[in-house]
Amino acid sequence: MFLTISTTGDSDVPATDLGFLLHKHPERAQRFSTSHGTAHVFYPEATAERCTAALLLEVDPVALVRRGKGKGRGGAPDSALAQYVNDRPYAASSLLAVAMGSVFSSAMKGQCAARPELPGRRLPLRVELPVVPARGGAGLVERLFAPLGWKVTALPLPLDERFPEWGDSRYVSLLLEGEQRLVDALRQLYVLLPVLDDAKHYWVAPDEVDKLLRTGEGWLEGHPEQRLITSRFLTRRWSLTRDALERLALARLAETEGAESEELDNAVDESVDTEEKPVPLAVQRREAIVGALRESGAARVLDLGCGQGQLVGALLKDARFTEIVGLDVSMRALKEASRRLRLDRQSERQAARVRLLQGSLAYTDRRLTGYDAAVLSEVIEHVDLPRLPALEHAVFAAARPATVVVTTPNVEYNVRWESLPAGHVRHADHRFEWTREEFRGWAGTVAERYGYGVEFRPVGPDDPEVGPPTQMAVFHRDATDPTNNPTDRRGPGRHRDTTDPTPGTETTASPPAATPPAATPAATTPAATTPAATSPDTATTPDTATTPKEEKAA
User: Fold this and answer.
1) Digit-coded pLDDT (tens) for 189-229
2) pTM
3) How many CB atoms within 10 Å of residue 386?
4) Cα pseudo-dihedral 65, 70, 76, 81, rounded to 10
């Protein structure tokens, strides 16, 4: 990627003052390491009449793949399609913007200790970028830069000069000319280059709003394309865009009133937190599980697929749970759970209440027998459907606790997650995600087969159209069942749904025909198979928010 900034001058005001502003000496060629390659700064010409500073960014494609978000939500689309062969090393984009912010950081802050008067001076600037992706064409380039006082020359580049009939590519050769302060020019390029590309090579977090307002101060507030700039810079994340636009509107009002933004935005006393903070879905899920275990009277509890031990930690806080066992197939997750729970610092009595075991739910395990309750929190969707019967047997037939609590995502609710692309599951490792009907069909079959009754409860906001984000089934073993061979039981299953108009009533239902099929609207079936997964309390953005319109940080 290549960028040049030129200016002119005379003997009284030499053009080489550009070196003071950029904090880079015209007689030296300097080299800087970046997270995705190497940046070079040099001066092809440096005289009193004309001075040109060049920034050359050599992008390392391997580093781009390893460090960037080459796949998944938020990644640059070109990187996702072709990680090693794409336009990232050549076309000016967010990679060049980030390099500018690093190499010219003092210039972008308007600092010049040697010549303090220079940052405020307007210079005749000429900015050239040979290749710039412009999703919107040369017309969009004009709409973005012309209102800022630039004379814009954006020449579309052909797809192939040998085949003119193929037409133009989505790239332009960009030339900007105008009398500007250097600090303003750098800040505008920092924001507008990724806006033209309509992509970023890194995940956009909430602090990106502060970055946008800081670099856009003085020119973004009144820009006619403010909404488009804000939306594209924040990769179309609706909640972040709304926050940025509200703060820009407040800054515009403050400028009109001749006051500070803080003076106008004084409706809330910051010394007193009057706003109720949203409760993350993961916390609501743990609270619902703990509540169900308390109702059952369980004292000895299994957390199957315990992950990093969030639920184990919640159970430890309640003295009624005298023995808690966390089981997971991942030793790494168990080590992290031990660290989080600080088992090495617990009192001897408290530490004796907890055991962390490695094991797979695809096999029966004698260590899991004799417990009052078992929890499968966000676990079953990590198991391939052909292996799900093995998990059912290991839990409901072999371990056979009196109570089993199962939670799983409700795929119908996925349409409410703004940040979740259509057709995608909430976590890359999910083998399937069930509708409410499919989950109840599976739970009813399991209850009938192994001699349990089952009730269903919503977790999180219960949407009248698509239901809750998480669905929970609570299985209670039939205390009147005299047999110790539950796989031979073929009596009717008993179902109770706490979302019905008459909660608390039990009805006898005919068993579902079969386990729900693998093909659901958002199901995925990767080639690799894993017997069981960790609890996804640390999973994707939807599981860390209370409503789809409010985000954490995924």
Assistant:
1) 999 999 998 888 777 888 888 888 888 888 888 899 999 99
2) 0.48
3) 12
4) 100
